[in-house]
Automatic annotation (TrEMBL):
Transmembrane segments: none annotated. It comes from the Bacteria. Belongs to the carbohydrate kinase PfkB family. This is 2-dehydro-3-deoxygluconokinase. It comes from Ciceribacter naphthalenivorans. The keyword Transmembrane does not apply. The keyword Kinase applies.
């Protein structure tokens, strides 16, 4: 029996990635699903890792459910929408860097917060609640408010609430709405996991340390600023900011790099390790992921030491 619950909230999509001979490989991925995947790979069995989203009633939705179950990601909180389906995206690679194309207009996940009672029930059972800027961006504005209120209540009740801004400007109505939504999310996050290149382009941060300090001022309890494999900035218990550097890794496919760092980092923190040690584990996991194609490396192939 599981003693604790990690709940990830967001949109899972069908992923098409380039394979050999001009063919495409189909899988399933999405920022919050990717992090749940690597949390599951890194946490001991007493933790249940569950996903909260909304799916359709179509064959792709059914196969996604089976995929999650087969990989020990609980689906008991997933709701269904008979009028919609799952979103789809493709990844094209150029020297290890990726570009994406999306088809998500009819994604059922856009309505994941419409059933507020179901969302509240799931959050109430969780020890850790994880969501992202993409989770917020795909929702109607009133539904964003509902999600943020429920997560804020969870933080006030002593639960660990985690937010990765994962900034995607094209998903938001405009830049002002986006900045407001991200700032509101900071207030409900006991842990924030921003990426420096995104943050610098939107908020004008001049350094990873400035980025970390801004998130702390906005209300986040603990901050780790990722930096595309470069040095990371970590807030410490005394309120200061520590910078850590790692050996560089040349990527085969950088898809899922930040999400997998999150998974390794959070699993280490939940196992009682300090932020600095957790960041080392996050980097170790991400370094393995970017050396393989696609967002999800088989869980049993992730090495933690």
């Amino acid at each position: 029996m599981n003693d604790k619950l990690f709940l990830s909230i967001g949109e899972a999509m069908v992923e098409l990635s380039q394979a050999d001979a001009g063919l495409w490989r189909m899988g399933y991925a999405g920022d919050t699903l990717n992090t749940a995947w690597y949390v599951r790979a890194c946490l001991p069995p007493e933790w249940e890792v569950a996903y909260f989203t909304r799916l359709g009633a179509d064959p792709f939705s059914e196969s996604m459910l089976e995929f999650l179950k087969a990989n020990e990601i609980a689906t008991r909180f997933i709701t269904r929408d008979p009028e919609r389906t799952v979103g789809l995206y493709s990844i094209e690679l150029h020297d290890g860097e990726r570009s994406f194309s999306y088809w998500r207009g009819q994604s059922a996940a856009r309505r994941l917060a419409d059933d507020e009672e179901a969302l509240a029930a799931a959050i109430s059972q969780a020890d850790v609640v994880y969501f992202s800027g993409i989770t917020l961006a795909i929702l109607e504005p009133s539904r964003r408010g509902a999600l943020l209120r429920l997560v804020g209540e969870a933080r006030a009740a002593g639960k660990t609430t985690v937010f990765d801004p994962n900034i995607r400007p094209r998903l938001w109505e405009d830049a002002d709405v986006m900045r407001d939504g991200l700032s509101r999310a900071a207030k409900v996050a006991s842990i924030a996991l921003p990426s420096f290149d995104d943050e610098a382009s939107v908020f004008g941060d001049a350094s990873i340390e400035q980025c970390a300090a801004r998130w702390l001022r906005s209300g986040a309890g603990e901050v780790v600023v990722k930096n595309g494999g470069g040095p990371v900035a970590i807030s410490t218990a005394d309120g200061s900011i520590l910078t850590l550097s790692f050996a560089s890794v040349k990527p085969v496919d950088s898809t899922g790099a930040g999400d997998s760092f999150n998974g390794g980092y959070l699993a280490a923190r939940l196992n009682g390790h300090a932020p600095e040690t957790a960041a080392v584990q996050g980097h170790r996991v991400a370094a393995q992921v970017i050396c393989r194609p696609g967002a999800l490396v088989p869980q049993d192939e992730i090495q933690l030491s």
